[in-house]
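Entry:
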Amino acid sequence: MSLNRACSKGDLASVKKIVNDGADINAIDSRGRTALFEAAWGGYNDIVKFLLDNGANANLADSTGYTPVMRAAEEGHDSVVATLVQKGADVNVHGKVRGTTALMLAAEHGHCKTIEKLIDAGAKVNAIDHYEETALARAYRTNQTKAAELIESKGGRGKPERNTFQYADKEPPRPLAKAAAPQWTAAPGDGVFDDDDVAGAGIPDEGFDEEE
């Protein structure tokens, strides 16, 4: 069994044996994922702690630019998020394709405890992605009312003007259709990307994998 596989299964005993036998703790698989990435995604905090204590890099991203803390935030694994933050995880990394942050992922899935931990750890509340959405906009777009209220109470802005753009299919505005997109109120300078950073219209979110 590979180290990544043991981590994805939550098998701490096997993880310890494989590491103690000399496995490269920061090795990546064909999708750019490390053992820590798999453990964080699965919510296995005991394995996450073990890996970090044995030299795992908390900020190694997969091929889409997602880091372990981003996957943990997406799943609402707030204890894992806390562990990663304590070990130096950067909570303001943007994914490659859409410019997603850990806070945006927690917001669109309604993980309020995770949102609080990320903001307490220094997550930029009003950062925007390539589609000019903030964490607050994502919370509203996915009908995560409690998450939206929490983010607003922390100074979040960027509520979409639905009277100018209807999210009929709950998809974000595309970069090549910015003229039809709503006006945002994100803080100037927070995560703003140049046009060259936008990967193009109609592309999927980071982390899309047909095998998952």
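The chain has one domain: 3-154.
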